[in-house]
Structures are given as structure tokens and as C-alpha cells.
Amino acid sequence: MLTNWFTFLLYKFLKECAGEPLFMLYCAIKQQMEKGPIDAITGEARYSLSEDKLIRQQIDYKTLTLNCVNPENENAPEVPVKGLNCDTVTQVKEKLLDAVYKGVPYSQRPKAGDMDLEWRQGRMARIILQDEDVTTKIDNDWKRLNTLAHYQVTDGSSVALVPKQTSAYNISNSSTFTKSLSRYESMLRTASSPDSLRSRTPMITPDLESGTKLWHLVKNHDHLDQREGDRGSKMVSEIYLTRLLATKGTLQKFVDDLFETIFSTAHRGSALPLAIKYMFDFLDEQADKHQIHDSDVRHTWKSNCLPLRFWVNVIKNPQFVFDIHKNSITDACLSVVAQTFMDSCSTSEHKLGKDSPSNKLLYAKDIPNYKSWVERYYADIAKMPAISDQDMSAYLAEQSRLHLSQFNSMSALHEIYSYIAKYKDEILVALEKDEQARRQRLRSKLEQVVDTMALSS
User: Fold this and answer.
1) Among 49, 298, 315, 452, which residue's beta carbon has the most beta carbons within 10 A?
2) What are phi and psi of 314, to 5 degrees?
3) How far apart are CA 428 and CA 426, in angstroms?
4) What is the per-residue pLDDT across 373-415, written as a single tens digit (0 to 9) for each?
């Protein structure tokens, strides 16, 4: 209930203030991850904040510029798009869609699975590229997804996104196809049965139809009962921790901007939302009432109330706020940022050692600074003038008026009643003990509501 209360009342602050640095962080992570190889099967990446999602093997790759025909207007100038020669066809399609439909909400864009990637060579030669087709390399029980390098797509090539065709492999019957394919004719293999395009969500399951396992950049030996000694190409921890730190440095400004915005009482002209001041004062009143003078307890209450209950969820899941797509590597990086945010709200000291998780080591030098921001934020709020009940009531009424047509009030009332019915006895006792509740005869009024609901049911 508290989470929903904050979600409703912090909407304006999120939209006008905190939303921008959150979106910028998401974009920065996505852009940085896509500068290097991302394994379409395991979800591991060359650039990462998460050790669990870091490609430890050395992957050779080149950056290519593809000139994409505008699918909305073929006569418009082609859109230059950066890609990697180790990208799968689906990864290329996603990058092209990001560039061509920049600024368009994700839910309103065509999806990669609904489009074919067409490689254009001159006016007539057009080849449909796919993750799997008759040219796919198969080695024993391993089938490797096709990449731009597999097709020998060169820098500056012209490509287009076209609606997906219905034939098994969407191979053009034009004579130009055979001519263009001759460069890698030796790769051709006869497929026993057409393979459907698989989802590009990370997976490591075998192809049950053919008994083969898909791979892209790295064969996942963890799932093959291989001895640990067979993984000799893995780099030692110190080496890839350096790579994690390099990625962290690139994203540092965006993390700082977001944390600073959240832990500021006044930022870019936006005043602190009244709901935060009201709730924090309520927690302080309860601490005074119960004679709790330990500052760490008060700090923990406030952290559990707002940062850990509301903000962590928003940081971890920006797709709840924006119409975007969050892939597995972006999710892993946001999880590291969210964990750092949680550590910044903690009052306990984190003792680091050689066995500490890499995400703790990554932000070890930053967390003391972030903690000081949190402490200052709580102290600044405590110093602000208290909000009267009348002002808070007016604020809540105004918020309800602004969103009058967006919510079903009867449904909301029923949800509240379901909660009340579950804890009826405890609530009635609490209302009887509270002086202000007695003055307003709230116990009697609630009993009338319960009786009325019982009759109607």
C-alpha cells in the first residue's frame, strides 16, 4: 500500500525531475554495452558492470557502418547505423530499428521478429540474411548463429528492413542470389529440416529437433559437464575486474546524476514532494512516541520506506516508467546500480576482502560519498517546516483531481476494504486508542462501513 501511495504521489516528481537522469542512465548503459560484442545466447557482453554477464574470452570484432534504407520512405536518405561484424542478424535488426525509429515508443515500433534483414548489392541483388539458414555452420553438435562476418557483409553496405516473408528460409529465387552467395559457397550445408527463428533471449538449451546446441560467441561449457580445466581461455579475475572498472568509469556521471537527483531536497527548481516530508515526519513522530532515539533505526525506517521500497524498483525496472525494451545485459547492469543504491542507504559498514562480490568492489570508493548524500538528504528534510494536516489534505485532494479520469475509485476502495477486513480487529483497537481518531469517531464510522459491506455481500 505504501509503495502504491508513493508511486501515485511521486509521479509528478518522476516525470518532471528524476525521470530524465534515469532515462539517460538507461541509454548510456545500452549504448556502452552495444559498442562491444554481446552473446545472443548467454547474454554475456564485452562491456558490463556485472561480472556474471562479462565475456571473459577474447573476441575479435570490427565496427561496421551499415546504410539502412528508411522503411517508411525508400526515397529518403539512408540512415547510417553502427554495428559489429560479430553481431547476429537479429542483433543487427534491433540496432537498425533503434536508429530508424529513434524517439518512437518501443510498443509502437515494428519488432525485429516481424522484419527481415535484406542485404542490397546494386539495384537487383537482394539477399535475405537470417540467424539460421542453409549456410549455418554446424560442428558436431554445435550450431553457430549467423553473423555479419559469416555473410561477409562489408563496411558501408546497404541494408533494408522489410516485412518478414513466409517461405522457409526467405531465400530469393533471383539468379543474383546464387551469384552473390558464391563467395562463401563452401559453407553451404543441407539442413535436415527448416529451423524456425528462435527468440534472442539468452538461452543455452539444445535444439531438440536436430540434437544440436546453439552458440554465438562463446560455447557455454558450464552446461556440458565439462571439467573446469577445459576452460583454459578464461581470463583471471584481476584482468576482467579492470574491464568492469573501465565500464563503470564510462557510466559514472550518469549514476551520479541519478543518485544526486533522488537525494536532493531541491533540484532544478523542483521542490521536495510533500508526500516525502509528510511520511518522514510521521516516522520521526512514531520514533519519539515509542522513545526510539537510535538514529540508525530512524535512518533505516526512512530507507525502507522510500529508497528501498520505491526507488530501487524504478532503477531496476525503467521499463515500468518508459516505453522501452530492457535486454538481459542492461538488466544485469541496472541490478548492479540498484545494489549500489541499496548499499548507499545502509548504516552498516561493508568490510571488503578478496572474496567480496565484484559489484561491491566496483563502487567501494563511491559508496561513502553516496552515504553522505543520503544522510544529508534525511537531515535536510527533518529541518524543513512541518506540513499541516490541512495542507496535506488539500494536496491529496488536488492529486486526486488531477488524475480523476485515470483510476477506478470503486476498485481502489474495494482493495482498501479488503485490507481493512483482513486486519479489522487490530485497526478498530488502534482507532480507539488514538486521540484524534476518537474525536472524529473513526471507529464508529469504520464499523458502519464493515456492517454495510457485510449486508451487501
Assistant:
1) 49
2) -70, -45
3) 6
4) 999 999 999 999 999 999 999 999 998 888 887 778 788 888 8
